[in-house]
């Protein structure tokens, strides 16, 4: 079973994503901050991370930079309410950039793509 | 023997004759006849003194040769008659021929007469003549006869005086009549030369002079203006220095001068020998205008000259006083005619300039104004030149640039535009802007003018000099003028032309060059003066036009800037709003929508819970879309350009909505140019444009319709590009809303932020592209977008 770490400071969003992704057959962990995320990565060893940008103290971009210093290979999907950074990060350290939406189809499709799972479409 | 009765008889008859009105000579003749008859003598003759009282002339005779009358003369004291006149005593001689005093005059035929009685004719103490009777026989004359003859001589004296008075009175009357006629003539409006001739002719006549001359004062000289001479030998000076002005020597009371030949001053005026000269000054309002002179008064009846009398002085003075007024009037009239003519020209010029300036103020469009300026100058009618050209100064390149050249309408035979205007009751402006005036085809002259580019620093070029020196040049012989550029002259084709700088507020705007190519009339001083005045008006009009245009431009820029400012403020507000608040809204929406969706999926169909959760999902989607629009709008950045094929992007974007369009019965028609070039675009932003347009079209066709998308090569850019159009049949935008569709927040839809079209425009503009639309209210709208290659 593939493991997903959802990094987002919003509890409701954490819950939504956990429910949705668990139904998709993933093992889901959540983190509310950059620090917690780092800890969970060490402990959980996720296969893919979904990352919000706006977070307290350390934002998602900085976290990603720090992450890449240690974990170069873990796929990261940025999942943010901001759409303005989308183009910048296409060539940046993330593997995908999904603008947050109440419809999680796009996020889930991106996760599956990154993990090389045949979506069957 | 003469009785008392006979004596009375004689006296009575003589007295009757003496007081009759017949001519004096006739009267004297009658008297000699009666005297001779009644005194029984063979002869009776009367001699009278002439004016100078030196000479006695035989005036009437009975018994002597009639041819001798008025011809035989004797000096006072010579002959018996002369003696009697000198001594004022009578002489009675038995035989006159033996008397030592006797003087023989063969021509009178008195050889046969012996006895002689001669009595002086006395007027008081003056002897005025002598009456003499002669008999053939020698005899003594009695006392009675002597007394009778003395009495007769008194009668004669009375008759003579009467006649003389009558003669003088008649003469005086005729002179007064003549004077009156002269006065009338002088008070009529004669031209100066005619007036002068009138004066000299009548002056001569009225005083019976041999010649009359008029000199008038011009500055320091007296100029001979006219003369009338009855003699060929008289020679008059043409100019006399005013220091010889005789009036300087005149006494206070005598406003005249009588000179004789020996006088040095007289010789300055009359170069030949004369007897006498009478000069009267012409004084008007205490100013001396000149001198009127008469020369050599003729004696009446006999040849010779005598002095001018007091009467002559008076008559001439009267003429002079009339003459001076007439001369002054004539000068004034002449001057006023001149002024009047000058004024008429000036008024015409001014009214032309007024019309011209009205015409020039009518427009602020430069081309129209230039046309008017050149039209005025070539309009004909005394102010017109055959050709005129305008060159304007380009301040950046420091060159004079040929703007327009106009030729007079040579097909118009009269060429008299001003006359035609008044006939047609048209103003200059109306004519200049009419079909007729503008009907001129493009001439070779105009083509030539437009090619002219003259650097103002160019030496040896009169046009440049006119600009640098800010002065007018009238070139009368261009070929031999070193300041005329030979190449320009050859192309111009005339040898004479004028160059006028057009100045406004001391700044040179350009130059006007005029010539008379067709009629070769020389350019006059009057023309140049008019041109200078006209150029001032033209300068103002052009400056006005320029300032007005600038003002309009600035105003337009300001309005645009203001619009943009307002828009950007709105946008800035929007940006600020969206960046923070929108983000805060998004996360809760994700939760609300996400869980509502989960509820929807887990509830049974046809339950209220399912329906409610569906509503929540839909509304959240709507909010998310709104936020997305707002965030997208505020986040449009500089496009990141990469090469793409627009056809591919269109197809990919359409595919996202294909299912939805099928459901809504929207027929999609694609005409994509297969060989479209790749262009550099920001793929994401252009996709946004397409998405917005497609969604707008879909929204406008809820009951179905047609969506046509086409791509073509664009011809709007120098380095190539593509054009794509998106056309729908969604009814278009109402006319009243059309101008607002690109305003942020404006929308004709029930839902939506209105930001879509604003975003599209922003993206297209940031690509350097062109966004256009064709709106057909009731039918549909067609968006046309041209994007450059951006290589």
Lay out the secondary structure.
The complex is a heterodimer of chains A (121) and B (791).
Chain A: E1 3-7, H1 11-23, E2 27-31, H2 34-44, E3 48-51, H3 60-70, E4 76-80, H4 86-90, E5 96-99, H5 105-114
Parallel strand pairs in A: 1-2, 1-3, 3-4, 4-5
Chain B: H1 4-18, H2 24-38, E1 43-49, E2 55-62, E3 73-75, H3 79-87, E4 91-93, E5 115-123, E6 126-135, H4 143-186, H5 192-206, E7 209-218, E8 221-229, E9 239-241, E10 257-260, H6 264-269, E11 276-284, E12 287-298, E13 305-306, H7 310-361, H8 366-377, E14 387-394, E15 399-407, H9 417-424, H10 428-432, H11 435-438, H12 444-450, E16 453-455, H13 462-469, E17 473-475, H14 486-492, E18 497-504, E19 507-515, H15 525-602, H16 608-634, E20 642-644, H17 646-663, E21 666-671, E22 679-681, H18 683-700, E23 705-713, E24 721-728, H19 755-766, E25 770-776, E26 780-788
Parallel strand pairs in B: 21-23
Antiparallel strand pairs in B: 1-2, 1-6, 2-3, 4-5, 5-6, 7-8, 7-12, 8-9, 10-11, 11-12, 12-13, 14-15, 14-19, 15-16, 17-18, 18-19, 20-22, 23-24, 24-26, 25-26
Helix pairs in contact in B: 1-2, 1-4, 2-4, 4-5, 4-7, 5-7, 7-8, 7-15, 8-15, 15-16, 16-19, 17-18, 18-19
Question: How does this model look, in words?
Answer:
The complex is a heterodimer of chains A (121) and B (791). By secondary structure, chain A is an alpha/beta fold. Helix content of chain A is 41%, strand content 19%. Chain A has a five-stranded parallel beta sheet with strand order 2-1-3-4-5, sandwiched between helices. The mean pLDDT of chain A is 86. Chain B has 19 helices and 26 strands. In chain B, the strands form five sheets. In chain B, strands 7, 8, 9, 10, 11, 12 and 13 form a seven-stranded antiparallel beta sheet that branches. In chain B, strands 3-2-1-6-5-4 form a six-stranded antiparallel beta sheet, sandwiched between helices. A six-stranded antiparallel beta sheet of chain B has the order 16-15-14-19-18-17, with helices on both faces. In chain B, a hairpin with a 5-residue loop joins strand 1 and strand 2. In chain B, helix 1 runs antiparallel to helix 2 and helix 7 runs antiparallel to helix 8. Chains A and B meet through helix 1 of A and helix 15 and helix 16 of B.
């Amino acid at each position: 079973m593939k493991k997903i770490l959802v990094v987002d400071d919003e509890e409701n969003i954490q819950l939504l994503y956990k429910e949705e992704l668990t139904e998709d057959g993933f093992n889901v962990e959540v983190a509310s901050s950059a620090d917690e995320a780092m800890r969970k990565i060490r402990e959980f060893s996720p296969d893919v991370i979904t990352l919000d940008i706006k977070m307290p103290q350390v934002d998602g971009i900085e976290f990603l930079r720090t992450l890449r210093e240690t974990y170069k290979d873990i796929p990261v999907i940025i999942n943010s309410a901001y759409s303005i950074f989308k183009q910048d990060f296409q060539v940046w350290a993330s593997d995908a950039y999904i603008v947050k939406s109440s419809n999680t189809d796009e996020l889930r499709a991106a996760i599956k793509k990154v993990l090389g799972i045949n979506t069957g479409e | 023997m003469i009785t008392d009765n006979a004596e009375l008889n004689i006296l009575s008859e003589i007295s009757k004759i003496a007081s009759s009105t017949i001519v004096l000579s006739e009267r004297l003749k009658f008297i000699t006849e009666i005297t001779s008859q009644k005194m029984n003598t063979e002869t009776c003759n009367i001699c009278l003194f002439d004016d100078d009282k030196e000479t006695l002339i035989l005036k009437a005779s009975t018994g002597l040769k009639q041819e001798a009358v008025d011809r035989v003369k004797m000096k006072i004291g010579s002959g018996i008659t002369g003696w009697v006149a000198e001594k004022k005593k009578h002489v009675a001689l038995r035989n006159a021929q033996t008397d030592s005093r006797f003087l023989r005059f063969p021509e009178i035929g008195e050889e046969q007469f012996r006895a002689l009685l001669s009595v002086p004719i006395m007027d008081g103490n003056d002897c005025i003549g002598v009456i003499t009777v002669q008999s053939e026989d020698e005899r003594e004359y009695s006392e009675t006869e002597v007394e009778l003859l003395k009495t007769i001589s008194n009668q004669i004296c009375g008759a003579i005086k009467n006649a003389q008075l009558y003669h003088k009175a008649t003469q005086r009357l005729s002179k007064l009549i003549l004077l009156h006629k002269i006065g009338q003539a002088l008070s009529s409006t004669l031209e100066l030369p005619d007036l002068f001739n009138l004066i000299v002719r009548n002056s001569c006549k009225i005083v019976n002079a041999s010649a009359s001359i008029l000199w008038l004062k011009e500055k320091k000289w007296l100029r001979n203006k006219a003369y009338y001479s009855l003699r060929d030998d008289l020679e008059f000076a043409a100019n006399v220095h005013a220091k010889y002005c005789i009036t300087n020597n005149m006494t206070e009371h005598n406003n005249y001068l009588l000179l004789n030949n020996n006088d040095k001053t007289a010789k300055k005026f009359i170069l030949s020998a004369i007897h006498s000269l009478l000069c009267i000054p012409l004084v008007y309002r205490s100013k001396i205008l000149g001198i009127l002179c008469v020369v050599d008064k003729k004696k009446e009846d006999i040849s010779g000259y005598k002095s001018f009398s007091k009467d002559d002085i008076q008559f001439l003075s009267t003429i002079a006083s009339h003459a001076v007024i007439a001369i002054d009037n004539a000068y004034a009239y002449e001057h006023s005619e001149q002024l009047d003519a000058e004024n008429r020209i000036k008024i015409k010029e001014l009214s032309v300039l007024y019309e011209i300036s009205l015409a020039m103020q009518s427009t602020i469009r430069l081309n129209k104004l230039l046309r008017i300026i050149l039209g005025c100058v070539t309009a004909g009618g005394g102010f017109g030149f055959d050709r005129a050209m305008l060159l304007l100064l380009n301040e950046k390149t420091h060159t004079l640039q040929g703007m327009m050249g106009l030729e007079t309408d040579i097909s118009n035979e009269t060429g008299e535009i001003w006359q035609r205007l008044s006939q047609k009751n048209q103003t200059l402006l109306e004519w200049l802007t009419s079909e007729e005036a503008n009907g001129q085809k493009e001439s070779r002259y105009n083509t030539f003018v437009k090619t002219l580019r003259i650097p103002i620093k160019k030496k040896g070029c009169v046009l440049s000099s006119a600009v640098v020196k800010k002065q007018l040049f009238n070139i009368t012989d261009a070929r031999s003028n070193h300041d005329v550029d030979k190449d320009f002259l050859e192309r111009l084709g005339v040898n004479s032309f004028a160059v006028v700088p057009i100045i406004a507020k001391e700044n040179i705007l350009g130059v006007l060059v005029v010539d008379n190519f067709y009629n070769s009339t020389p350019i006059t001083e009057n023309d140049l003066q008019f041109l200078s005045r006209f150029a001032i008006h033209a300068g103002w009009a052009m400056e006005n036009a320029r300032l007005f245009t600038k003002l309009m431009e600035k105003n337009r820029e300001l309005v645009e800037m203001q619009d943009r400012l307002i828009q950007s403020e709105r946008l800035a507000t929007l940006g600020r709003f969206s960046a923070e608040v929108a983000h805060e809204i998004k996360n809760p929406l994700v939760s609300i929508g996400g869980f509502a969706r989960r509820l929807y999926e887990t509830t049974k169909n046809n339950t209220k819970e399912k329906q409610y959760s569906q509503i929540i999902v839909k509304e959240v989607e709507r909010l998310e879309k709104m936020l997305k629009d707002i965030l997208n709008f505020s986040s449009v950045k500089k496009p990141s350009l990469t090469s793409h094929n627009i056809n591919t992007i269109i197809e990919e974007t359409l595919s996202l909505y294909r299912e939805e369009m099928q459901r809504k019965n929207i027929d999609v028609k694609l005409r994509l140019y297969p060989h479209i070039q790749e262009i550099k675009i920001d793929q994401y932003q252009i996709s946004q444009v397409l998405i917005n347009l497609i969604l707008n079209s879909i929204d406008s066709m809820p009951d179905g319709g047609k969506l046509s998308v086409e791509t073509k090569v664009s011809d709007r850019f120098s380095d190539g590009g593509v054009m794509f159009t998106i056309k729908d049949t969604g009814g278009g935008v109402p006319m009243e809303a059309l101008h607002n569709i690109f305003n942020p927040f404006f929308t004709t839809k029930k839902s939506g932020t209105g930001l879509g079209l604003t975003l599209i425009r922003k993206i297209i503009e940031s690509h350097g592209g062109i966004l256009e639309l064709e709106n057909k209210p009731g039918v549909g709208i067609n968006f046309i977008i041209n994007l450059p290659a951006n290589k």
